[in-house]
Amino acid sequence: MATALDNLREWYRDRRGRLDLFDETLVSQQANPFYLLGPMIYYFWLVTVVTGIILMFWYEPTTEGAYSSILHIQHEVFLGWLIRGMHKYAADGLIIAIILRIYRQYFLGEYKKPGELTWIWSFAGLVLAMISGITGYLLIWNQRAFWAAKTVLTVPVFFDELTAKIPVIGERFNLGSMIAYLFLGGPAIGAATITRFYALHFGISLVLLIVAEVFYYRTRRMRLNMSWFAIVVFTAMLVFISWALPAELGRRADPSRTPLPILSDWYFLALYQYVKYTPPLWAGLGPGLLIGFGMLAPFLDRNKSRAPLERPFFFAVGLLALIYFLAFTTLIMFNIAVIEREPPIILLVTSVVLMAAFIWEVRHRRRKAREAAASAAAPARPAAAAHAHT
Fold it and tell me: Which run of H or E residues covers position 1?
């Protein structure tokens, strides 16, 4: 037991020394725009936090005053529309940059030794950013935000079907309902919900910012590995988008009227389509399994190569995840979901692709093993021939 703990500590110390929160050590790669994603994450995150703190001066986190305070900020506070717009679009930019960076790390095998900890932080950052996004979304307290939050918080309830089958525990605890109750602060969305969402929305950013600042203080690394030109360009983009596409207001939340369709922000749309397609139990399990696979990917992928086509199975999994994310998002936007036809087709395609990728992976590894054995035996032949000649 002690040896295992010592190995874990040694592993953690080694990976912590090689941790890249925002690609700050990859200075030589800055000519490649894909390695600008790390600094972009820090920049958009900083803008989101700063503008969020400014908005706190006028925002009222109550069911009665939330929507009215947003109206006041948007129309009466000097440059309030700009601060609110930059807060929204910087948050969107943050999530886009995190997603693109994760796909870069995945397809280029950057999660392999010694990048495991960097990958885990990146993936956990995406999950926390999405939680912060959905909690912040409700704070507008308009129809779309209210009902989108209500729909998302029904997903954990599906876990009850699973926990009900566990002896003793299932009879006393409904894990899914407990999770939903923890976020809601009661049986339904209300005053306690908006208070908790407000605290989570601010707390996640604050805690992560403190962790990042402690990391940079101890490592003496550059916080924002980005040129002033890039900073000016991104700031100008945020200002322009905030002016051209003002952050939406919508109608005040009305629990008695259900808007159709019920949609959340863009990064949750694929989840809505997935929930439509799957039975209740899998609707709850699916996101958890996806997060679990993402966190464990560095330890599941034992192939030493980093090239995408040298890792056929994991390449196929990543490609399917990307295609399904884009396809499900498109389908939910156009309100297309034929439950009797599409899920079996999706399941069949997924099974065939993964099976083909698995076979490709096995054959590829066998071929590599034969090549390695042949190359190891090749130098021995000339030596043996020379010995026989002598």
Answer: none
Say if CB 82 and CB 236 are below 8 A apart. Answer: no
- CA atoms of 295 and 106, how far apart (whole Å): 11
With a pLDDT cut of 70, the percent of the chain lying above it is 91
Start-to-end C-alpha separation, the chain: 56
Domain borders along the chain are 14-153+189-264, 265-369
Question: Any bridge partners for residue 252, and if so which?
Answer: 142
Per DSSP, the residues of 107-155 read: HTTTTSTT-HHHHHHHHHHHHHHHHHHHHHHHTT-BHHHHHHHHHHTTT
Tell me the pLDDT of the chain averaged across its residues.
84
Kindly tell me if the per-residue pLDDT of 154 is higher than 80.
Answer: no
Place of tokens 């969402």: 197
Amino acid at 90: A
Q: Residue 245 to residues 238, 242, 249: CA-CA distances in angstroms?
A: 10, 5, 12
Q: What is the DSSP letter of 253?
A: P
Beta bridge partners of 142: 252
Q: Which of 83-97, 122-136, 252-266, 297-311 has the lowest mean pLDDT?
A: 252-266
CA–CA distance, 142 with 150 (Å, rounded to integer)? 12
DSSP state of 57: T
Q: Does domain 14-153+189-264 have CATH number 1.20.1250.20?
A: no
Torsion-angle region of residue 75: left (phi > 0), alpha (psi -120 to 50) or beta?
alpha
135 near 127, Cβ under 8 Å? Answer: no
pLDDT at residue 105 tops 90: yes
E strands within the chain?
none
Output the pTM of the full model.
0.87
Single out the residue of 268, 230, 297 nearest to residue 92, CA to CA. 268
d(C-alpha 54, C-alpha 200), whole Å:
17
SS3 301: coil
Label residue 173 left, alpha or beta by phi (over 0 means left) and psi (-120 to 50 means alpha): beta
